[in-house]
Design brief:
By secondary structure, the protein is α/β, with parallel strands linked by helices. It has one domain (2-164): 2-Layer Sandwich (Nucleotidyltransferase, domain 5), CATH 3.30.420. The protein has helices at 42-60, 76-96, 105-112, 120-131, 140-156; strands spanning 2-7, 12-22, 25-35, 64-68, 100-103. It has a 5-stranded mixed beta sheet. Strand 2 and strand 3 form a beta hairpin. Helix 1 runs parallel beside helix 2, helix 3 packs across helix 5 (140-156) and helix 4 crosses helix 5 (140-156).
């Protein structure tokens, strides 16, 4: 099973593609970010996110996507901008017919580190150990995306546990 993990943001959307061979065996296929410079308008960023996610789907043919769910912060403007980014990503995935599952950051951290309050550094360190990779050059957004993919895969790869998966977005 190929799982695409996405940590959405307007300027730095992290992605991680893993192949789940079983519930406890996974390999990284690719990871990185879709970056948008600060001087780009929101509409241009959204266009680039839509196109970038479409390209990831065409290149890796994921069976499903695990994406960070929307959060509600004190800053309404930040929440709206993140929601716009999520919308562009969801539209690109829906156009390709890829099912999307949303997970809270806390749930993903709990699944891969053992603590829902783990730091980004702890998530990155666990991804380095889990996948035997050097994370020094990998952005935190990408390791967060890998954690989301792994969170989904740990349940989805176990026969009989599909009822525990969240409803697709």
């Amino acid at each position: 099973m190929i799982i695409l993990g996405i940590d959405p943001a307007m300027r730095r959307t992290g992605y991680g593609v893993i192949e789940m061979q079983s519930a406890d065996r996974a390999a990284i296929v690719d990871c990185g970010i879709i970056g948008n410079a600060r001087e780009l308008s929101h509409s241009e960023c959204l266009r680039r996110l839509y196109g970038g996610v479409g390209e990831l789907v065409r290149n890796f043919h994921p069976d499903c996507v695990a994406m960070e769910e929307a959060f509600y912060g004190k800053n309404v403007k930040t929440s709206l901008i993140l929601s716009m980014a999520r919308g562009a990503i969801i539209a690109a995935l829906a156009e390709q017919g890829v099912p999307i599952y949303a997970y809270s950051p806390r749930k993903a951290k709990q699944a891969v580190v053992g603590s829902g309050s783990a730091t980004k550094g702890q998530v990155a360190a666990m991804m380095a150990v889990r996948f035997a990779i050097e994370i020094a050059g990998i952005p935190d957004d990408a390791t967060d995306a890998l954690a989301l993919a792994l969170c989904h895969g740990q349940v989805a790869a176990v026969p009989g546990l599909q009822d525990l998966l969240p409803q697709p977005v």
